Amino acid sequence: MGKALIIGAGGVSSVVVHKCCQNSDVFEEICIASRTKSKCDALKEKLDGGKTKISTAQVDADNIDELIALINDFKPDIVINVALPYQDLTIMDACLATKTHYLDTANYEPPDTAKFEYKWQWEYREKFKEAGITAVLGCGFDPGVTGVFSAYAQKHHFDEIHYIDILDANAGDHGYPFATNFNPEINIREVTSKGRYFEDGKWVETEPMEIKRVYDFPQIGEKDMYLLYHEELESLAVNIRGIKRIRFFMTFSQNYLTHLKCLENVGMTSIEPIEFEGKEIIPLQFLKAVLPDPATLGPRTVGKTNIGCIFRGIKEGKPKTYYLYNVCDHQECYREVGSQAISYTTGVPAMIGAMMVLTGKWNKPGVYNVEEFDPDPFMEELNKWGLPWNEDFNPQLVD
Ligand SMILES: NC(=O)c1ccc[n+]([C@@H]2O[C@H](COP(=O)([O-])OP(=O)(O)OC[C@H]3O[C@@H](n4cnc5c(N)ncnc54)[C@H](OP(=O)(O)O)[C@@H]3O)[C@@H](O)[C@H]2O)c1
To answer: How far is the CA of 8 from the centre of ligand 1 (A)?
Structure first.
């Protein structure tokens, strides 16, 4: 049916590539392109020989001309961006220049400021519309499935949703004293930033990890979770009608927080350049180089993740509560695609989002967050491709 250019060859990309190859009726041909070509070749070697034809290429995705040349050469129907958030705008520019659909899993973040927002990508709306191409923003799990869950709840269960709490629990244990489950630089920038949530039309800011709750997660048990700012809060606050408050909580162990605090205290999480032996280095990038590569955590991580949304609102004049969540087992993911559940829960939705565009189910020119599309075909595919969802109409609430 179609051709996808997959940019990036890290933990998430590996899952996208596996899943595209499993779905060869839709993904007839893929090209894996990244900064380090040997990583693309290693993926090709693992998966070659099936029905999906695989090629690889070297590309610097910060360079628009290189991207345009690659797209003109491979002629994909869609570009799946699973490199880093820093590359979102250059890849969107290249998609515009070549009239190619675009999908990513994280919103743009300038490399020199730890600040992510949709502003920069939303500015492409008119240009994508005029070019007749679709950009799907934030199509991993969170953001991604959390937006699809919200659209599904809005479509089928509520007249108005007033409160959303997004809960992201990872009860996986990789056995290292400290490691991050996806790109350490992006992950640490996210969790050391101030917290923020939306209430009564305003954004409320908190100190990092200031708000803590304990939640008894289905199939996982009790965990400490902390309020963070997360990018889907920005788009859901705009796209969900009647919303009064939306918050995001993520679980962290005391051990993780103690390590992080110590690294922060000694300056290792800073993104301010410093001089070291006559060379300028960024402490956080140096830290990334010494931490375990998340792509290697698969074989050693045991336990489960549980990510979902608790909705409260009104249906036919009556108050209603609805919890939608997915539970994913790290070892099952590893057995299937050789990756832990964090990469899996991001890569599967990215493949499904690209499939929605290629099959014409999500077909509207412009730049959209996932909750702006019909959630039903996506929800169906989640059940088929390894991320089945559960419903609870009487869940424990978060105060
Ligand atoms: N929505 C969600 O639920 C969710 C969850 C987790 C992660 N994510 C996002 O998923 C993305 C990938 O995460 P990951 O854990 O797979 O990261 P990763 O393992 O660090 O992989 C990133 C890949 O991008 C490549 N890359 C970086 N800069 C590049 C450039 N200028 N040109 C070409 N390729 C470049 C890297 O190349 P090298 O190999 O040369 O370094 C690497 O192969 C990130 O944007 C992350 O924020 C989203």
So the answer is: 6
What radius of gyration do the chain's Cα atoms show? 20
pLDDT of the residue at 275:
95
CB atoms < 10 A from the CB of 159, how many?
14
Q: What is the pLDDT of residues 155-180, one digit of tens each?
A: 999 999 999 999 999 999 999 999 98
CB atoms within 10 A of CB 294: 23
For the chain, what is the largest distance between any 2 Cα atoms, rounded to a whole number of angstroms?
A: 68
Side chain identity at 68, as an amino acid letter?
I
CA dihedral 126, 95, 240, 362 (to 10 degrees): 110
Q: Distance between alpha carbon 232 and the CA centroid of its chain, in Å? A: 10
Among 12, 285, 305, the mutation site with the greatest number of ligand 1 atoms within 8 A of its Cβ is: 12
* Per-residue confidence band for 372, with pLDDT thresholds at 50, 70 and 90: very high
Distance CA 271, CA 283 (A): 6
Establish whether residue 87 lines the binding site of ligand 1, counting it when its CB lies within 6 angstroms of any ligand atom.
yes
Q: Are the CB atoms for 321 and 310 separated by under 8 Å?
A: yes
Which of 9, 79, 11, 68 lies closest to 41 in space, CA to CA? 9
